[in-house]
Structure formats: structure tokens, C-alpha cells
Amino acid sequence: MAAEGASLSDVRPDCDGIMTGIKVDQSEKAETESLEDEERKGEKRKILDVQCDQDGQTSAQGEERRLGGGTAAEEMMEGEEDEEEEEGETEQPNTDSDEVIKERVQKTKLFVPVEPHQWPIVYSPDYNISFLGFEKLHPFDSGKWGKVYNTLKGEGMIRDETTVRPQEASDDDLLVAHTKKYINSLKWSISVAGITEVPPVAFLPNFIVQRKVLRPLRLQTGGTILAAKLAMERGWAINIGGGFHHCSSKRGGGFCAYADITLALRFLFTLGLVHKAMILDLDAHQGNGHERDFMQQRDSVYILDVYNRHIYPRDGYAKRGISRKVEVNYFIADEEYMTLVASNLEAALNEFVPDILIYNAGTDSLEGDPLGALSISAQGIMKRDMMVFEFARDRKKPIPILMVTSGGYQRNNAEIIAASIRNLWRRKLVTCPEAEEFQAKMAPVSTTPSSQQPSTSQAGATTPSTTEETNANETSQGRGFFSSLRSLCK
Ligand SMILES: [Zn+2]
Predict the structure, then answer these.
(1) d(Cα 287, Cα 304) in Å, to the nearest integer?
(2) Distance 218 CA to ligand 1 centre (A)
């Protein structure tokens, strides 16, 4: 996910000119003890063993690069140590009793009724952040989610009536995983500025930050929690949003303000719907948030994380939460990447049979992404998603799968995510006959722009038309910071 530097000042170009986020806050960096060094070395040996076990040739190549066979940029990075940040002394874990957590889960309003004719696809136009010219201040396309939805709608796969609208996660919902201290910290705009990596946010009144920045993220978080339950009921679900994998229950970062994956699993565990879960994190960045949260629960939560080893967050402490770690180098391309994902996913599912697979399907692995710095083609992304769904669904006892969209920072990401979801549909890896039947009886989606429906241009591109979507579009056109601020003050 995310712009994924601790703050803008922490982001620096490497020798290839790629912006690489490196956390440099020395006050938070714990002393690396010799015991931890030993553990880390042992961990590295274990990774190599794991890969060798599964695919000797691929891992042998990987080992060669790790030993210095990479590019000049890689070699320069070799000397850098991962962060081995320990738990801060002032941080307190969420000490609420199981009973209190259970009460919060039972009282939630997130689990809205879902009709049989609705796809287990969750989205709200309010996911999109149309605010302060985010596009100019941040590499993240804050209207990406609306573009994915509109494309799927324009193509006739879904309609407003057949998709599920989530509720915003309340404080009580968030406290199922988050600490009160962390939630309270978001009442300071400066904290949110650090998490979202948009410094001007620090100067805004917090009520504006809550409404314009955090509410969309709380909605997406509610969407992930709801979609997780839907996946258990329907066999699959997609939240067109979420995947805030750098946020743990105690700390946000890298544009991730809420730990939606942790929360979704805590809800499912508390409801007794699952006992064992697997997180497959294929965003280009390490998923240090959920890794920190489930570090003590490796028996029940298995994490398979494939990420660029050279970029943010390089969270050595969080790596202890990973069951199967696949660290890749800059600009890995389709063939090698796909082999690594397939062999490790197969091995993971041989080792551990989960009740649910949470798939963090970040697209910042796409070639050209300024932050992910990998080289996977658009076809490769589609093939990857298809392969993951096949692994989960084409088996004797299919594993319920929840996909969240996570990071991806280029203008064409939305189009590729939509194409990939459509591909899953065409290949019947995601189905909802009731929704298709319902849609067949309805008038086709109008091609004339209206206040409620999208239009499709001759070229097939979808034009946003709802107010929210238009706002997202305005953002993508780069509405300036000060004009946005003026409009807020009106
Ligand atoms: Zn990412």
C-alpha cells in the first residue's frame, strides 16, 4: 500500500532516482542486540531454505542476487540494515477484555443486510478523497476506487442496485483491534498529516480532517470488515478499497490510518466464523501492520508476504510475524514473480489450511510504479489475481477469499484492477447468478450522463457522473490546494 514513507522528509531518491521511503527516526529505532542479529540471520537462512524447498532453481538465483549479484542500486542497498524496531515503551496494548471486545462485535452496525441479488462486491462513492488537490501533494490517486467501480459498472458487470454499500466503522468497531490511545491520536491533525504524508493536513482543523480524509478511510475499513463476513457466506468477496497493511492496532503510516485487515480478522475470530486465516500480501511493500498485530498468533494466522525488499517499510521487527517471506529485488518481471508467487502459495496451502484467505492485491507491483519499483505487466497483474483465485477456489474444499485493492499509484491502475475483476468474472472464478438474473431484467445502464449513472464513451472509457465521482474526477485533474481550501470554507 501507500506512499509508504514515514513522512515526506523521510523519502529520498536512491541512485536510480527512484523514491524510496526509508524510516530514519532514530528516536524510534531500537538498538539491535546481538541476539536479534542472530535471529535475523536465522530468519534469512530460513527464507532461503523455504524457497529452495519449493523451487530450487528460482531460489538459487535469488540467493545469488542476495549475495551481491544485483544492480549497482541493489548493491548500495545491501549495506542497509532493516529496522529492528521494538515495541515503544510508551505504547500499551489493547487491554480490553474478550468480553468487552465481544460486546463491541455483537453491537456493530457494519453487517448490513445483503440481498441474494447483490454481488459480494463492496463499494461506496464516499471511498474517494476529493480534497485539497491530493493529486498534487501525494502520489496516491485518491479517486482510484471510484474509477474501478465506474469501469465495472460501465462494462455491465455490476450496477448500483447489485453492489453492497458499507457503513463507516465507528469508534467501537475500531476499538475491536485499535488502542484508544491510537484512535485519540487521530484527533490531532499533525498525526494524520504524518500518516497520510500530506504535510498541509497538519494545519487544518481536525473536524475537516476527520470528514474529508479519515471518514473515507473508515468507510473502506467498514467495507473490508463487511466483505470478510460476506466472503464466509458467499465463498468470495471483493472490497474495492481497503488493504491498509502498514497500519497496526497501535500505529498508522504509509497512508494507512486503520488496520482494516486486522480488524476484519478480529471480527471473524470473535464471531467464531473462522479459526485459522491466511493473509496473502502481494502489494509491493511489506505488510508490516498486520504482521505486527498477528505476531503472537502465528498458529492461527499464517502470513505469506511477497515484497520488494529494498523499499519502505523495511520493518525487521514485523518480519517476525511472517510465516513465509518472499523478498524480491527491484524490477522483478512477470515470469520470475509468477513462479515465486505460485510455488510459495502452493507450499503455504500445503502447510496450512485456512478458513479464509485474505488477499491484499496491491497493484503497485505494476511496471512504472514510482513507489513499488517492480516490473509486472498489466497482463501479469491479471494473471496473478486469476492464479490466486484459482488456488483458493479450484480445490476439493474451496477456501473463502476476500480481495482488497491496497496500493497502486499510477493513472492506469484503476483500469487494470477493473480489467482483472472482469477477467475473474468471465472465467467464472467470481459468480453471482442471482445478480446477473436481476440485472438482465433491468434496463441497460444509460449511456447518457445522468445524476445517478455513469456514461460510457465510444472508446469504452467510463465517465464518472455522480456528485462524488465528479469530485473524484476534479481531484484527478489536480484541483489546487488553496482553491480546495476556499471551497471547504464556503
Ligand atoms: Zn504498497
Answers:
(1) 10
(2) 19
| Ligand 1 mean position, distance from CA 40 (Å) | 23
Span from the CA of 73 to the centroid of ligand 1 (angstroms) = 20
Percent of the chain with pLDDT over 90: 65
| 138 in active site | no
Sign of CA dihedral 191, 192, 198, 203: negative
Catalytic residue, from 138, 246, 290, 310: name it: 246
DSSP string for 404-449:
E-----STTHHHHHHHHHHHHHHTTSS--HHHHHHHHTSPPPPSS-
Model confidence over 178-193: pLDDT tens digits?
A: 999 999 999 999 999 9
**pLDDT category of residue 445 using cuts at 50, 70 and 90:** low
Alpha carbon distance 131, 259 (integer Å): 22
Amino acid 388: pLDDT: 98
pLDDT tens-digit map of 390-444: 999 999 999 999 999 999 978 899 999 999 999 999 999 999 999 999 999 987 7
* Cβ contacts of 11 within 8 Å, gap of 6 or more: 3, 5, 19, 20, 21, 22
Neighbouring-strand partners of residue 277:
301, 356
Complete DSSP assignment for 153-208? HHTTS--GGGSBPPPPPPHHHHTTTS-HHHHHHTTSHHHHHHHHT-GGGGGS-HHH
Residue 135 and residue 480 in contact, taking contact as beta carbons nearer than 8 Å? no
Residue 86: CB partners within 8 Å, gap ≥ 6? 30, 317
pLDDT digits (tens, 9 = 90+) for 12-33: 223 232 333 323 233 333 333 3
In this predicted structure, what is the pLDDT of residue 78?
39
User: Amino acid letter at 472?
Assistant: A
DSSP 376: B
